Amino acid sequence: MSVFIVNKNNFEQIKSSEKTVLLDFYADWCGPCRMVSPLVDEIAEENPQYLVGKINVDNEPELAKAFGVVSIPTLVVMRNGKIVNQSVGARPKPQILDMLKG
């Protein structure tokens, strides 16, 4: 499954997903974000049981604020519309997968 580009118009649909959701808060100018982005893409392709979305904080400041994002990349895991895990900074793929399984 591919990565969804999340914005304020489709966020409720993503949030209400029955699947575990991984959200990647990023910006195009962010070096660590560019390191994490291909890992997030791989996770989306290899794990159809998860819904994976990316939120550009420059384009969606309201969503970034709603999640309390002050540093990027920020990864958020949601289940049943609630945040169950969150991390800030670049993470290796195994750690991101552990967040999702946690």
If you had to describe this structure to a student in words, what would you say it looks like?
By secondary structure, the chain is of the alpha/beta class. The chain has one domain (4-101): Glutaredoxin (3-Layer(aba) Sandwich). 35% of the residues lie in helices and 28% in strands. The chain has four helices and five strands; from the N terminus they run E-H-E-H-E-H-E-E-H. The chain has a five-stranded mixed sheet. The radius of gyration is 12 Å and the shape is globular. The model has no long low-confidence stretch (mean pLDDT 96).
Portion in beta strands: 25-35%
CATH superfamily: Glutaredoxin
In the sheet with the most strands, the strands line up as: 1-3-2-4-5
In the CATH hierarchy, what is the architecture at level 2?
3-Layer(aba) Sandwich
Low-confidence runs of at least 5 consecutive residues:
none
- By helix and strand content, what is the structural category? alpha/beta
Rg over CA atoms, rounded to whole Å, is 12 Å
CA-based shape = globular
CATH topology: Glutaredoxin
Order of helices and strands: EHEHEHEEH
Q: Tally the structural domains.
A: 1
Count of alpha and pi helical runs: 4
DSSP strand tally: 5
Please write the CATH class name.
Alpha Beta
Sheet with the most strands?
5 strands, mixed
The termini sit apart by 21 Å
